[in-house]
Write a structure and sequence with these properties.
There is one protein chain. The strands form 3 sheets. This protein has a 3-stranded antiparallel β-sheet with strand order 2-3-4. The protein has a two-stranded parallel ribbon with strand order 1-7. Strands 5-6 form a two-stranded antiparallel sheet. It is globular. Helices cover about 30% and strands about 5% of the residues. The protein has 2 domains: about 220 residues, Cytochrome Bc1 Complex, Chain D, domain 2, CATH 1.10.760; about 230 residues, Cytochrome c-like domain (Cytochrome Bc1 Complex, Chain D, domain 2, Orthogonal Bundle). About 50% of the residues are buried. Strand 2 and strand 3 form a beta hairpin. The chain has about 500 residues and is mainly alpha-helical.
């Protein structure tokens, strides 16, 4: 279990209580105003407080890391979970739209990774960082959903978890114990991500594909001298069992181990958290001004960001229409099938068309590009879009994108998304308030967002705990040993 953070220390005492200094730190007027907003919002500073989360050194996450990095779970054995979610790339892949199977260079991750037909995955890869802190939904459209939505439970509250394998609103009895494990069941069933377009002919549904992949893994284990025969002791070690391969190497255990690896990626030790704990110098003046803008309403002179990016995890875990430019192959939506209707693909509600889940802002500095399809390359650009979607869409240059990204009907699709934004705004739905902030205020907001970054996620030596080293067995010889043309 993660260390339970200290309660919010009064800023007027600040470092004096933490260090024993005789002279207390005197808070500024800016600190006093920010403290009032913090207290009004009921924040604690620590979104991981009270949660039961694994450590990366635990046996199951260690097995999960081995599975996360192996290409043996993909249909053509040319992609792994890490192909789209590398710790060095912010728990994502640092490109607008992911490239899973059939990459020109399978081990090249991030910028420079290409596919002969351009990106076929329709959405930006969400970060795996702090995956264990979500309580309601996973995926941009929320297609993995906790039916209980109990705060602090990560879906493990006994009410069940709905997945794409079940009709909307109905629990999936095979989902697993929490949201992250449930999510881990699906990349292998996606033709574009891991399954491939030729694997499993005759295996129609997701469970048949999962079972086929597991049987192939087992077949190699059973075959005399096969390199993957080394998987069995790894599963026995992780689950503290002497059972045989058929008992231990199941897709349920594979998904559980991968999920626990992802849930161990807890990165919350931010300057913002240090500020809560009494270090009034943990935030610079620009970040403090940005925090005021973030939490204050427009009537108070603020940007109202906290109306959606609320709580210690900086998300309401709801769905909102922002009209981020629609790029890429789309999600089988619209007249030509290259649009993406977001949450409406799950709920079939017109008002949910073009609505996407509010992302967490923790470590947002390292999770570029931004938007459900990675349409914006920088924090400043996505902040400006939030302030005025109409102006941002009007100024958006589709030719800035990599030429391989499909934009055939992007302008038309984006205008439809903007029309939905206008319609919901006019109906009084909660939406983005158009604001006219100057360049200095935008810079302050960005400074605050950067203060939500755990230093570990910018330190490769720190992240190495989540990347297999020479001392961790490579049971099947198919580990993806990533190379990078560019690291953020």
């Amino acid at each position: 279990m993660r260390r339970i953070a200290l309660r919010l220390t009064l800023f007027v005492v600040g470092l004096a209580l933490l260090t024993g200094c005789a002279t207390p730190v005197v808070e500024s007027g800016l600190d006093a105003r920010l403290r009032d907003l913090i207290e009004t919002a009921g924040l604690t500073g620590d979104p991981a407080r009270g949660r039961d989360l694994p450590e990366i050194s635990d046996p199951v996450p260690q097995l999960g890391m081995q599975l996360f990095f192996t290409m043996a779970l993909s249909g053509k054995q040319d992609a792994a979970c890490v192909s789209c979610h590398h710790p060095y790339l912010g728990g994502g892949d640092a490109i607008p739209l992911s490239i899973g199977v059939d990459a020109d260079q399978p081990e090249l991750l991030g910028p420079g990774r290409t596919h002969p037909e351009g990106p076929l995955v329709p959405r930006n890869a969400p970060t795996t960082f702090n995956a264990g802190l979500w309580d309601r939904f996973l995926f941009h459209d929320g297609r993995v959903e906790s039916l209980g939505k109990t705060p602090g439970a990560n879906g493990a509250d006994g009410y069940g978890i709905r997945t794409p394998d079940r009709p909307w609103g109905y629990p999936d009895v095979l989902a697993g114990p929490n949201l992250v494990v449930a999510q881990a069941r699906f990349p292998v069933t996606s033709e574009e991500e891991m399954r491939g377009f030729d694997f499993g002919n005759g295996h129609g549904n997701g469970n048949e594909v999962r079972n086929a992949l597991t049987r192939e893994l087992l077949a190699e284990i059973i075959a005399a001298g096969a390199p993957s025969a080394n998987w069995l002791p790894e599963f026995q070690r992780a689950f503290a069992s002497e059972a045989d391969a058929a008992t231990l190497i199941t897709f349920e255990n594979i998904a559980y181990a991968i999920g626990e690896y992802e849930r161990s990626q807890v990165f919350v030790e931010t300057p913002w958290k240090a500020y809560f704990e009494g270090d009034v110098d943990a935030l610079g003046e620009a970040a403090k001004r940005g925090a005021l803008l973030f939490f204050q309403t427009p009537a108070e002179g603020g940007a109202n960001c906290a109306s959606c990016h609320s709580g210690d995890f900086f998300t309401d875990e709801q769905f909102h229409v922002l009209a981020v430019p629609q790029i890429g192959v789309g999600k089988d939506s619209g007249l030509y099938g290259d649009d993406d209707w977001g949450r409406a693909l799950e709920t079939h509600r017109d008002d949910d068309r073009y609505a996407f889940r509010t992302p967490t802002l923790l470590n947002v500095e390292v999770t570029a590009p931004y938007g459900h399809d990675g349409a914006y390359a920088t924090l400043e650009a996505i902040v400006r879009h939030h302030l005025n979607p109409e102006a941002a869409v009007a100024a958006y240059a589709f030719d800035q994108l990599d030429p391989s990204i499909r934009v055939t009907n992007a302008v038309e699709n984006t205008q439809r998304a903007l029309g939905q934004w206008r319609r919901l705004r006019d109906l009084g739905y909660p939406t983005v308030t158009v604001l006219a902030l100057d360049d200095g205020q935008v810079a302050d907001l960005v400074a605050f967002l950067e203060a939500l970054t755990d230093p570990c996620v910018k330190d490769r030596a720190c992240l190495d705990a989540w990347v297999p080293g020479d001392g961790l067995a490579d049971p099947d010889g198919r580990r993806l040993n990533a190379t990078f043309s560019v690291l953020p």
